[in-house]
Amino acid sequence: xxxxxxxxxxxxxxxxxxxxxxxxxxxxxxxxxxxxxxxxxxxxxxxxxxxxxxxxxxxxxxxxxxxxxxxxxxxxxxxxxxxxxxxxxxxxxxxxxxxxxxxxxxxxxxxxxxxxxxxxxxxxxxxxxxxxxxxxxxxxxxxxxxxxxxxxxxxxxxxxxxxxxxxxxxxxxxxxxxxxxxxxxxxxx
Length: 189
What we know:
The chain contains three helices and eleven strands; from the N terminus they run αααβββββββββββ. The chain has helices spanning 2-17, 23-44, 56-60, and strands at 72-74, 78-80, 86-88, 98-103, 109-116, 119-127, 133-140, 143-151, 157-164, 167-174, 180-185. The strands form two sheets. The chain has a nine-stranded mixed sheet. Strands 2-3 form a two-stranded antiparallel ribbon.
């Protein structure tokens, strides 16, 4: 049986491996296949849920240097003033730029949010006490942008809320087993 399979594979490689096609036509056929896959993916993506906002890489480029090089402080060390901006306690001259974190009692990370000039800017990540991701959202100068994702404690997606240009455009909800149970779309005018 093994020799039959091996013979079949050798014959298949011989006939298809010794093709007279040039490499350029192979590349084109691969590109066509990739294009077909992209089209299939586009069918899954609903245009009504596509954000017109900047991508997260562009948002992080607003920082003059890598966000990790700015201070990281505990949430208890911050205060939000009437102007809606976050400041480090006892440093009221300039809104906070850097990362704010919060920890569970065991020391594991509960929340991590980047701020730029006192406004959420970049990613906000929340975890369950198990370390499993609970929430991920992106902000652009204090405005929620793109997709805000939430998970169940078992790792299954729970919700994807879609935002564009500061407006809520809809969401999809899943049950604990991963089954889509609800889809909402807000009519845009």
